[in-house]
From TrEMBL, chains A, B:
<feature type="domain" description="RACo linker region">
    <location>
        <begin position="128"/>
        <end position="219"/>
    </location>
</feature>
<dbReference type="InterPro" id="IPR042259">
    <property type="entry name" value="Raco-like_middle_sf"/>
</dbReference>
<feature type="domain" description="RACo C-terminal">
    <location>
        <begin position="388"/>
        <end position="658"/>
    </location>
</feature>
<dbReference type="InterPro" id="IPR040506">
    <property type="entry name" value="RACo_linker"/>
</dbReference>
<protein>
    <submittedName>
        <fullName>ASKHA domain-containing protein</fullName>
    </submittedName>
</protein>
<feature type="domain" description="RACo-like middle region">
    <location>
        <begin position="223"/>
        <end position="378"/>
    </location>
</feature>
<feature type="region of interest" description="Disordered">
    <location>
        <begin position="646"/>
        <end position="689"/>
    </location>
</feature>
<dbReference type="Pfam" id="PF17651">
    <property type="entry name" value="Raco_middle"/>
</dbReference>
<dbReference type="Pfam" id="PF14574">
    <property type="entry name" value="RACo_C_ter"/>
</dbReference>
<dbReference type="Pfam" id="PF17650">
    <property type="entry name" value="RACo_linker"/>
</dbReference>
<dbReference type="InterPro" id="IPR027980">
    <property type="entry name" value="RACo_C"/>
</dbReference>
<dbReference type="InterPro" id="IPR001041">
    <property type="entry name" value="2Fe-2S_ferredoxin-type"/>
</dbReference>
<dbReference type="InterPro" id="IPR036010">
    <property type="entry name" value="2Fe-2S_ferredoxin-like_sf"/>
</dbReference>
<dbReference type="InterPro" id="IPR052911">
    <property type="entry name" value="Corrinoid_activation_enz"/>
</dbReference>
<dbReference type="InterPro" id="IPR041414">
    <property type="entry name" value="Raco-like_middle"/>
</dbReference>
<dbReference type="InterPro" id="IPR012675">
    <property type="entry name" value="Beta-grasp_dom_sf"/>
</dbReference>
Length: 689, 689
């Protein structure tokens, strides 16, 4: 019994736990584990104190503790016992450690719970600006000994198992997954009535559920899968649910690509082909099972050890994965079939992992802002930010979040695939041979660049040798941003996006190319043709970045601000993009460059957080309900922002912070006609529309 | 607002509902449905008062009501309105009826709720001694209008559906079955945002669940299936869940019969053949789907309208149906894999009915006393009986319940298949041509009998013609009971079960047949051989009836009684058996003959009750937990009772009530040797065992 609130009586020893600082008086003979449980100290135990699991290891400290006001005698704990000796013989107990279930309190004692013995371990994240993840998965293992059947007290084996588990876990009620009814009896007998159960407790309530059973004591580990189901790439992380560690990662192309490169072409495929949506559902589920195979092989585990799975994805992938026709997402009002988080039988999703696994899908924020954006929100936690953060996840659609502790807004903006190298004359996916970095000398207008697969710049000695196998094949998304921004800074492109002629720019790298000019970035060689940037390429990027910026600007309007404190670039693209160049183009709002950071695959990280911490599921569900959703398509100011944002960086917003560190010349190459005039005309019509 | 507890103020009209007698004051203009809901009056409504479903029909009464102390004026309700007019035009409203949601209170009024408008209708049962069933299924229909999607307030169609249903039903939370995610969007649009949902609310708690959806207003009916899954026969009743009516019944042979006639031979089959249990699982599930096909065809409904299913069965069938190897049930301690009631996805049981259906399986009482016995207990409700009832369900195993309001005991007893005509030389299943009734003249020792398929006795004129097609093929279970009991009463068999010789009995119908005598019941003809009763037949019945009686006697011992007040014979066999003849054999304890009644297929009725009334599920679960289970195999007194019960009626219990109405001669045909001596010897050895 806990004496926590009784006055010190000079009789029962005082037990102090660190690092929690929790303390209480306990009768002599109380096991340390019992004391910890009664004080609510975070000390792990799978076997409930039977000396089987060794999860409850603790480190006693002896001597004077003026800070705690106690002196700990050498005999403050009972002697090392047989169970501990056996464990030490077989597995080796770290010096100074004891098993909390075996060591009994005999006097005042200070006990440290090392991180590995805590249930709610901290999983450290590398980036300074984000919080660590507290390990608290939906699954827990519990080892119990089940009463044997007795003719005089007839009850099912299951009912006696549940009774034992209720006692061990404190759950009031427990269900069992139907698939376990068959193996239950042989399994209990194989384990001689000792059994380890994996119990799934949904964060949203409901009866805890036995989802897996092992005969005898099963040490684990068990694993969970966090998946970012992208339109192009499916990326999965396999996590050890006892440590939070990522033990294997794998990625593959989304097999739906054969039905259409981008989302809208897949929606069209479903509209044009009866049963087309189901073909795509089948394809993505098959892809996921390939990923599961890969990742299990990588980690050298059996797929049946994967007992949890969390998914993030955009709304179209969400529907296709669930087996829902995405038809409604292709047209206003972009109605989602379901927007809330879902917890479904993994088998209903065709996933070949442990039967009984419940798959969790993060909520969608809106018809164009999916569970992937919710994953970003969970990872980046704008709702916990003191300063106002703009978070953009750049892909075919850009999902944009703006917020701080006072509230979060979200929208998506149809950037199109230009940022991924599509619609660009020399564009290509990020792959060896692609130009990814560019510098242009503002005086000579001569470029140098780096290519994926080489550490050298193109004007470094030995560069040619490093690219001998890949060649130089095109420009990837980040390369396109850089080259256009560099052209803008070198005065080769004006603010309206027109490339100057050779005469206007003073370099013959600019050359007439039809009715506009192009810039030759690389001259080519006998094997490969030259790589140029055409005015059409610049138009494509202008459209994309204007869409992105306008979305951000709309959220800023709604929030009533002209600036943001910081910008976070999420997504694989965001990880490679140069913040300076992005800002020169006016992709993102004006901000100090050191306040523009990359979050990597934040959506995938969000999935991982939801996998490792059940409370995070409730948090993101609550946050998504609170987020104010803006539908850009119907916002009257969107068009105005779009037109302003077509200029580089912007025809209305001044970008003073950027201009204080970057020189932006201001030529005008408009000769009053040609393609630009037409474009301008179109844009003016739009404005009136 | 309800004014139920406010004093009569002379302003708000008084509304009195019959038959409930509930009353309250309501402001002028209150719809009758609203008043009923606020008073907790049982008035149905699927559409929530939109004038769509017409379930809330009521009958207003006018004039003087001295009993209620009110006078009802002609204008006490608002005038017949357009909605009512339209309904009357299309469907016809019974004269004097109004729609409760349309008619508004204008003055004091007396309103009768006719039975069809009550949610909790009474489903009348024919037998006087049992209670009617109150209709209260797990499924309810709710018609709602769903908010259309709005870009400015993005939420999924599902979330808006759930919001509408929560409002209409008052449920705090609602889930949806996964299979509905796909059809949801087209269905909502087809119904123009009007939809009817079938909501399943488990009696055991948990979140109510949308299991089916129809576009627009779906009037029903929806159906449920109550199944008694016997070792030999599968019997199903299809019930209309709105009326409680049985709309179709069907039965078929359990296809598992090809793996073994009786349960233990099926357990053996599973033990001897790897995967044998799964073969049997597949067979019984296929049989169930055949039953579903038959019954749906019979009722002219679509299988997808079957939205609930309840099952009762013995433990071996229970396990085989669930896909559990019955191995453990074949040996002590007869451990059930699971004994509690189960609610499972019907699809997990391979049932081809409406997807999303939850199948309910009644709890098993013990390793030999299954969910079928629980069904009998639910139907016959010994726990609610004022007098002490003995309920026996006779089959290959007899399940026996003894109890009253003070408590219920249960056991099973291995009667073997003799009562079903097996192990009997001329035995056969109950089918046309089988002798089912027998009388033997105590003077002449001449028999007469009736045959299934003919209304005439064998000595009636024209008998031969009526049996011309079937012939006389054997003796069924009830016939065996009768002929042996008649032989006993006619002095042809002594109390120990020996048939007398021709000399001893004075009739040449008794004839030497090996080492014992037989009795010729029918002489045969050119086509069919004679039908005789051998001493072996009598031994088989003696063993069976001794097992049955000993089980009952054990329960009486436990209860500390020498007599029971009444005996209920359940099961198909129980329906055909003559209570007098059963008692002459000593199958059942001594009791007044009019206190021995037949309950028919009480197990199946129990399934039907659990189907129609969700609370009954909780009741039987509670009762099964309270029932005291006796394992006959390990009860020391079982052998003693068995030996005593081998005599007809009994060598220890005097059967005074029986003897007061039936003459039981007391010859002894034991000549000290032969087969009987051997048998006696064996029995004496048993007694010592």
């Amino acid at each position: 019994m806990s004496h926590e609130n009784t006055p010190e009586n000079g009789k029962d020893p005082l037990v102090i736990f660190t690092p929690s600082g929790r303390r209480g008086h306990f009768p002599v003979g109380t096991p340390v584990l019992t004391a910890a449980r009664q004080l609510g100290v975070d000390l792990d135990s799978v076997c409930g104190g039977r000396g089987v699991c060794s999860k409850c290891q603790i480190t006693p400290s002896y001597g004077e503790f003026p800070k705690h006001g106690v002196t700990v005698a050498e005999d403050a704990l009972s002697d090392w016992n047989k169970v501990e000796q056996r464990y030490d013989d077989i597995r080796g107990l770290t010096k100074g450690r004891r098993l909390g279930c075996q060591a009994k309190v005999q006097g005042n004692i200070v006990i440290d719970v090392p991180p590995e013995s805590q249930v709610h371990k901290q999983v450290v994240r590398k980036r300074a600006e984000v919080r660590d993840i507290t390990l608290n998965p939906t699954l827990h293992l519990s080892y119990v000994e089940v009463e044997e059947p007795d003719m005089h007290k007839p009850s099912g084996d299951l009912e006696r198992l549940i009774a034992a588990l209720k006692l061990a876990t404190g759950h009031d009620a427990l269900e069992i997954d139907t698939h376990l009814l068959r193996p239950l009896q042989p399994l209990l007998r194989k384990g001689e009535w000792k059994v380890t159960a994996a119990i799934h407790t949904a964060h949203s309530g409901g009866t805890p559920r036995i989802v897996a059973l092992w005969p005898g004591y099963f040490e684990g580990p068990i694993f969970g899968l966090a998946v970012d189901l992208g339109s192009t790439t499916i990326a999965g992380h396999l996590c050890n649910l006892s440590t939070g560690e990522v033990v294997a990662s794998s990625g593959l192309m989304n097999p739906q690509i054969r039905f259409g490169e981008d989302l809208m072409s897949r929606v069209s495929y479903a509209m044009m082909n009866a049963g087309g949506d189901l073909e795509m559902t089948e394809a993505v589920r098959a892809g996921l099972n390939d990923l599961v195979d890969d990742i299990a092989k990588d980690a050298e585990i059996d797929k049946s050890q994967i007992l949890d799975a969390v998914f993030v994805m955009n709304p179209v992938m969400h529907h296709l994965f669930l087996g829902i026709d995405p038809f409604e997402l292709g047209q206003a009002p972009f109605a989602l079939a379901t927007s809330d988080a879902l917890e479904l039988a993994a088998s209903d999703l065709g996933l070949d992992i442990a039967p009984g696994t419940r798959a969790y899908i993060l909520p969608c924020i809106a018809g164009h802002v999916g569970a992937d954006a919710a994953g970003v929100a969970l990872s980046e936690a704008p709702n916990k930010s003191d300063d106002l953060a703009l978070i953009v996840d750049v892909g075919t659609n850009a999902e944009i979040l703006l917020g701080d502790k006072n509230g979060v807004l979200a929208c998506s903006s149809p950037t199109g695939p230009a940022f991924e190298g599509a619609q660009i004359s020399s564009g290509q996916r990020a792959a060896p041979g692609a130009i990814e970095r560019v510098e242009i000398d503002p005086i000579t207008k001569e470029p140098r660049f780096r290519v994926i697969g080489s550490e050298l710049w193109s004007d470094d000695e030995g560069f040619d040798a490093t690219i001998a196998t890949t060649g130089i094949t095109g420009i990837c998304g980040s390369g396109i941003i850089e080259v256009i921004a560099e052209m803008r800074m070198a005065g080769l492109v004006d603010a309206s996006g027109l490339i100057g002629s050779s005469e206007q720019t003073g370099t013959d790298r600019c050359f007439a190319d039809g009715r506009t000019n192009s810039y030759r970035l690389w001259d080519g060689n006998e094997d490969q043709k030259a790589i140029t940037v055409t005015n059409g390429d610049i138009r494509a990027i202008q459209m994309a970045k204007a869409a992105l910026y306008s979305g951000a600007r709309l959220l800023m309007d709604k929030r009533g601000v002209e600036d943001v404190d910081r910008v976070v670039l999420a997504g694989a693209f965001g990880a490679h993009i140069s913040s300076k160049h992005a800002m020169v183009l006016g992709m993102i709002p004006d901000a100090p460059l050191d306040k523009v950071t990359s979050a990597g695959n934040a959506a995938g990280t969000g999935a991982r957080i939801a996998l490792l911490n059940r409370d995070a599921r409730g948090e993101i569900e609550a946050l998504v309900r609170q987020i104010e959703k803006i539908e850009t398509a119907v916002e009257p100011r969107f068009q105005e922002h779009f037109v302003n944002a077509s200029a580089m960086p912007n025809s209305s917003d001044p970008f003073p912070t950027l201009r204080s560190v970057v020189d932006l010349p201001d030529p005008s190459f408009n000769t009053g006609g040609g393609e630009d005039g037409t474009e301008g005309g179109r844009r003016r019509r739009r404005r009136r529309g």
